[in-house]
Amino acid sequence: MSEEKMETGDSTIQPSKPESSSSPGEAPWVEKYRPSKLCDIVGNEQTITRLEVFAREGNVPNVIIAGPPGTGKTTSILCLARAMLGPSYREAVLELNASNDRGIDVVRNKIKMFAQQKVTLPPGRHKIIILDEADSMTDGAQQALRRTMEIYSKTTRFALACNASDKIIEPIQSRCAVLRYSKLSDAQVTKRLLEVCESETVSYTDDGLEAIIFTAQGDMRQALNNLQSTFQGFEHVNSENVFKVCDEPHPLLVKDMLQHCVVGNIDEAYKIMAHLWKLGYSPEDIIGIIFRVCKNHDMPEYLKLEFIKEIGYTHMRIAEGIHSLLQMSGMLARLCKKSAEPNVLAS
């Protein structure tokens, strides 16, 4: 059987050999470089330290890990389970994702049956049930879950990963220790990207990595996906290629547009806006990039605050459904008007 597999299997699927990433059958880098130990996880050091204490002591409470996507919530729980359970990891861990049906029947049957199973574990260790994307569970399922958590508390621990902890009912929140994750800093994402680039011999430029970090916004999963997509698509990572793959309005264009608004040149600013509109970008994409570029744009502080306020009002109108080129042009006119007004704060 094993010989057959060796003959028929794709020879490129060998995670142990870091070959060139252009191999057709290679695993996504997100999975290939997923940490297997808590000490390898990037960012959120305080929370990781707490989890390391749990793994060392063995007495883990039920936990809710809340935070933005791509910050290492699920990875942390899996690393904690590996550190605690060792060889028993496969038998003593049940993982249910949002892709599984997780209505009240699953809680009553699948979760309950797993909690009732007898598994031989080291003393002081518990079975772990991981519920990923727990905030997408129905209220009925959550109500059924809270009782299950109590009944099987001697043998089983629950780990719930979610983006927003307020979507989990309060009775479950009160039964869990809540750990909060924040977005990763640019430096943390850069460090991991450089490690992957070195391992995969990726050809890149500094502005290419900056573009990946700009598009990822603290999401490590997004950063690694963008890096792999750009490299496999163009075999070189620079800012132009990154923005082609991610298909976002180029921040340098948006920066020029804002600079025209700062000096009150509405005609040139509108030309750039019309160009972005003609390329087919949605107003939500454009306004999101304008906001992110404006935050770091070099302009007087009072003017930056006024600009952000106007951009925010326009974003609100777009969210309400008024997404026309006229709306975006009106915003540019208001920004130019703001820059023409005297600085009240300075006077």
Description:
The protein has 17 helices and 5 strands. The protein has 347 residues and is α/β, with parallel strands linked by helices. It has a 5-stranded parallel β-sheet, with helices on both faces. Helix 10 (206-216) packs parallel to helix 12 (239-246), helix 14 packs antiparallel against helix 17 (325-340) and helix 16 runs antiparallel to helix 17 (325-340). It is elongated. Residues 1-24 have low confidence and may be disordered.
Give a brief description:
With 347 residues, this protein is of the alpha/beta class.
Record the strand order, biggest sheet.
2-3-4-1-5
Order of helices and strands: HHHEHHEHEHEHEHHHHHHHHH
What's the main sheet like? 5 strands, parallel
- Count of DSSP-assigned helices: 17
Number of DSSP E strands: 5
> Strand portion, in percent?
5-15%
- N-C termini distance: 83 Å
Whole-number radius of gyration?
Answer: 25 Å
Helix/strand-derived category reads alpha/beta
What characteristic shape results from the CA principal axes? Answer: elongated
Which regions have little confidence, pLDDT < 50, spanning 5+ residues? 1-24
Name the helicity range. Answer: 55-70%
Average pLDDT value?
A: 85
